[in-house]
Hints:
The structure is a single chain. The N and C termini lie far apart (36 Å). It is globular and about 50 Å long. An eight-stranded mixed β-sheet has the order 3-2-1-4-5-6-9-10, sandwiched between helices. The chain has a two-stranded parallel ribbon with strand order 7-8. The protein has helices at residues 14-18, 36-47, 59-73, 88-97, 125-140, 142-152, 184-206, 243-246, 248-255, 293-307, and strands at residues 27-31, 51-56, 78-82, 104-107, 155-160, 211-217, 220-221, 240-241, 266-268, 271-272. The model is unreliable at 226-236 (pLDDT under 50). By secondary structure, the chain is an alpha/beta fold.
Amino acid sequence: MTRITTPFNFHSTAAEVVGGIDLSGRRVVVTGGASGIGVETARALAGAGAEVTLAVRNPEAGATVAEDITASTGNRGVHVAPLDLTDRTSIASFVASWRGPLHILVNNAGVMATPETYTPEGWELQFATNHLGHFALATGLRAALAAGAETVGEARIVAVSSSALFRSPVIFDDLHFRYRPYDPWEAYGQSKTANVLFAVGVTARWAKDGITANSLMPGAIHTNLQRHIGGTPRSAEFHWKTTEQGASTSALLATSPLLKGIGGRYFVNNEEAVVVDRRTEDMTGVAPYALDPDNADRLWQVSEHLLG
């Protein structure tokens, strides 16, 4: 299996990555599209001609962003729809309201290092939001994605993960911290590992329908994601990106011709990450447990069971 590299790098922006690509006729959903890198991912895809739906918890904020994207790109096909990934009724409503094909689903929304919190089902909040909510959304939209693949030859899912995957594999025997002491970073890391495994699972199951999924680390970006850790850390260990740079790898996975028919891989700085046998200082590799097909199968089965 050849490792995928591209002409783009750490400094590339989402707009640069989609330059010259025509997404006319493609329909896109970006979760969390009203803030952070979600805005710039949506802007780049809209700028390339796609019809983009911002799936957001706050539709008013989403409407403001949609207006800004339309003003900057000239694309009037930017829409807003309510979606709360911790609420199964909200997810079901979004899925039921979707009409026609879907070509690109960007699972971008997420929470990080939250205080110990559980959903009404008893699920740990970060696992519920970052993984289970997106799992329910994607499986609910599978028929739309398959229809999208029929119209243009492929459909793609982009799963935004994080180098925090090094903080924890998926702990199947205690997903929701019922026995081990809650640690916000372990919980976040577990959910981000789950995002990578989800992409592996999607590709194994749905590639026959023309649907593939890949995952990525966007990098360190100053966004609202840091709100639960007392603001944005300014440590010298981080190499910071702008939101436009942070959105670039998402845009790459959504659009690059190099990824046609390819899925189940993890990308950093616009290239496929190298599997490493221990955590690296620059955090650009990926742990083997995050790409393990047996782990992906187990996570898929557990997720289906939890969601009924």
